[in-house]
Fold this sequence. Notes:
single chain, alpha/beta, five-stranded parallel beta sheet, 5 strands, globular
Amino acid sequence: xxxxxxxxxxxxxxxxxxxxxxxxxxxxxxxxxxxxxxxxxxxxxxxxxxxxxxxxxxxxxxxxxxxxxxxxxxxxxxxxxxxxxxxxxxxxxxxxxxxxxxxxxxxxxxxxxxxxxxxxxxxxxxxxxxxxxxxxxxxxxxxxxxxxxxxxxxxxxxxxxxxxxxxxxxxxxxxxxxxxxxxxxxxxxxxxxxxxxx
Length: 198
Ligand code: TYD
């Protein structure tokens, strides 16, 4: 079987990470080589972004760091795909476009510029699934997990992120899944969409 590159997108609390891992485990159990990965990555540039080690930086600089992290990550992803692995990636280029264009701290980066800087460094995924959920419900989940709330997790901001994601879904043909349902219901729909591309 040939590999595939499948991306999960959505606001914080949409259930991407759990779903990504569950799909990887299920495929693995069926004898299909699959790995779950995520952006920002946990090494190199991704670690710099996560730790805040770059210091106070502009939104543009932060966007460039996300893209730099993605550039190296994409190389590793495509290598695995060429070896027949199904790579399930938690966030990819749409995260940069949706988040960095949504005006965190009142500074919105131009969405078209964000698409342009990404386009030089990304590979087109075989499938992008957008887990769509109202930010209020999403943040409720983050809260109930007892996780630290990051600077990106502000209600008004996430409403703009959600809306940007929905625009991108239409423009780039993402599959939009209603993530407000139970984890099993969401999983069943996602699994059926993935079966259609493998
Ligand atoms: P997240 O998926 O929440 O990682 P984790 O659950 O491991 O902490 O990503 C961290 C935050 O980074 C999230 O709020 C969205 C933000 N982000 C961007 O703003 N732009 C990007 O390009 C990416 C990949 C993430």
